[in-house]
Amino acid sequence: NAGVTQTPKFRVLKTGQSMTLLCAQDMNHEYMYWYRQDPGMGLRLIHYSVGEGTTAKGEVPDGYNVSRLKKQNFLLGLESAAPSQTSVYFCASSYVISYEQYFGPGTRLTVT
Amino acid sequence: DAKTTQPPSMDCAEGRAANLPCNHSTISGNEYVYWYRQIHSQGPQYIIHGLKNNETNEMASLIITEDRKSSTLILPHATLRDTAVYYCIVSLLVTGRRALTFGSGTRLQVQP
């Protein structure tokens, strides 16, 4: 099993550009999450999904959109990137009732 | 979710036990204590969890006080690879709709 994978690993955007981050998991997990982590801080939840075709807002959803068209994939979109969105983005997944979330390796995004 | 308080940093000598404290004085009766760690900006990794009783697995031991207002994560024989940020999190069992809330954690430095 590859676990949770994220694409791309690194990206540099100019202000106003758009992009999509892809998260994929092969553990048949129902729940998936997108977090962001700013320097020296803990993770903050952006959006999450409790199943295929469903999404919900987390703690810091503004400026982001998500989609869960397939159970194994969770996409995070930035329609018009801003410097404040410079961060490391982590995807995670879990079973419906679980003690453990499985995290991907992260995507480092810089917006100039 | 109950708030947690952890020291910002700790040092430990290689081969010795690392004892990481966590205060969670507002924990409710059905909330679990989870520990995760993050090694060098990788995705967080689950370590252990507990409700009331002390717990042990291949990675660590978790000691929860009888009043459940504090806990200690113990790495019995710390190695250089245990250098990481350790997060103590209090949350309900079902993590799907209540994603984990990561604070600033404790930065553990294992010294050779």
Quick rundown:
In chain A, about 0% of the residues lie in helices and about 50% in strands.
Describe the structure.
The complex is a heterodimer of chains A (112) and B (112). In chain A, 0% of the residues lie in helices and 49% in strands. Chain A is built from no helices and eleven strands. In chain A, a hairpin with a 5-residue loop joins β4 (31-37) and β5. Chain B has no helices and nine strands. Chain B has strands spanning 9-13, 18-23, 32-38, 45-50, 55-56, 61-64, 70-75, 84-91, 106-111. In chain B, the strands form two sheets. In chain B, strands 1-9-8-3-4 form a five-stranded mixed β-sheet, with no helix packed on it. In chain B, strands 2-7-6-5 form a four-stranded antiparallel β-sheet, with no helix packed on it. Chain B is globular. The model of chain B has no long low-confidence stretch (mean pLDDT 91).
Task: Using brief descriptors, characterize the structure shown.
heterodimer, A: 112 residues, mainly beta, four-stranded antiparallel β-sheet, B: 112 residues, 0% helix, globular
The coarse overall form of chain B would be globular
Total count of strands of chain B? 9
Mean pLDDT, all residues of chain B: 91
Radius of gyration of chain B, taken over Cα atoms and rounded to an integer in Å: 13 Å
- Specify the helix fraction band of chain B: under 10%
Poorly predicted residue ranges of chain A: none
Judging from the principal axes of the Cα atoms, what is the shape of chain A? globular
Which helices and strands occur, and which strands form pairs?
The complex is a heterodimer of chains A (about 110) and B (about 110).
Chain A: E1 4-7, E2 10-13, E3 19-25, E4 31-37, E5 43-49, E6 56-57, E7 65-67, E8 73-78, E9 87-94, E10 102-103, E11 107-111
Parallel strand pairs in A: 2-11
Antiparallel strand pairs in A: 1-3, 3-8, 4-5, 4-9, 5-6, 7-8, 9-10, 9-11
Chain B: E1 9-13, E2 18-23, E3 32-38, E4 45-50, E5 55-56, E6 61-64, E7 70-75, E8 84-91, E9 106-111
Parallel strand pairs in B: 1-9
Antiparallel strand pairs in B: 2-7, 3-4, 3-8, 5-6, 6-7, 8-9
